Predict the 3D structure of the following.
Amino acid sequence: MADESTPSEVAPEIPSAASQVPAPAAAKSNVSGRAALAGTAAMLALSKGKTALVLLKGLPFGKLLLTSGSMFASVLVYATRGGWAFALGFVLLLLIHELGHGYAMRRASVAAGWPIFVPFFGAMIAMKGRPEHPRVEADIAYAGPVAGTAASLACAGLGLWLHSRFLLSLAYAGFFLNLFNLVPFGFLDGGRVARVVSRNAWIVGALLLGLLFIKVPSPQLMLIAVLGLGHAWRSARDPDLDLVTDADRRVWAIRYFGLCGFLGACIVFSHRLL
């Protein structure tokens, strides 16, 4: 997730950080210190284990095994937090989020990898190419939260119809997940979108992550901040941003802040229902 090739070779991966999603249905079930450390170790192993990943992908059905195996591992880990039903539902929300990215890549004629899941960090999908314009990359990044928001709304709608506190809790977690991903920093989806609005948006994102870390200290947040800092610095100085027009900035400001505001309202509304 953090190891990136130079922009001229392979575009960086798009992660979905799910480390801080509060699940009301499992509010009394805290993640143990060992589990958090295991998640961090898994993240580091993935970021440094490219050779093993390449070998696995080279096997027959290797990519499918990598996706399904990492999904199963994530379900196992998240089950310790909120039970099997919540873990399965949450991982499916992550998958829909990543499929949104994948669909946008295909639509932009950018080759997409297979989703890979990392416990306590969410999931990622690789772009095997470089978008021709920053607004194309923004569109790819934006598609994940849009798909994830739609899936969360479906959970909320079913929850209201069936009077299911579980589905409402899952929707709440999905809303929070997608809003967190829109933080304008580094390799998070919001970092790729907000830089089209302003080169300096990453500074606001860094402050938001700092405030969140003060409120909820965690190794995952610290790792995201450290690994994303270099990406944020380089991204703000990308010469391709000179291609962005004032019209692009206005359109993306409306789309970005509109989705952030909508997700914020969904979080408040779903929390009140719980």
